[in-house]
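Encode chain A's predicted structure.
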Amino acid sequence: MPTLKISDCIACQTFPCEDVNPQGYLIPDLSIDPTTIKMVMISESTPLDSKAYFYAGGEASYAQTTRQAFSQAGINVNSIQELLKSGVYFTTAIKCAKTAYRIKAATIKNCSHILETELGLFPKLKVLMLMGDAAIKALNAIARRKTGKRAIPSGSTYKIRTSEYTFQDMRLFPSYLQVGPSFGIEKSKQRMIAEDITAAMALM
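Encoded structure for chain A:
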């Protein structure tokens, strides 16, 4: 399959959401063979500063904490590009920077349409890691449109994360957010994220 550029395939045209900052609007600017992607890790929202984003380089905060999470799962890599080459793609449920701690349900629903198109680019996708509440809610919005019901049940992440969930032949792993300041503070969540990454990578 020919290489495609992600940012040429998906976009927000109208920016209807009231609780995000469009100055932080980011779509992965990558040219990749979509058939190589087996897992997508979906985080919450883009950073306001594009230099912090996953693909901005080794010093980017999103890249650093994500690599740390994989390292804690026993997968040591020097860059996000190494993980990308191994079949793991990184994106966010919300394509603009958030302006408050919580993201409105309407915003998540709006952006879930973009995420749905994005996920549809990868024909051999096996695993979705849903990092945090926004990612879980976005996937549930997609599932409701497709099946009329949510894919992940409601409840605290620590209670639901150990059960097995599937959607369109993909395994789903509800987990915790691996970017942002809370990742470096909450050691128990780091441990659970590492466990979830280990289980997800075993399916690759």
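DSSP finds seven helices and nine strands in the chain.
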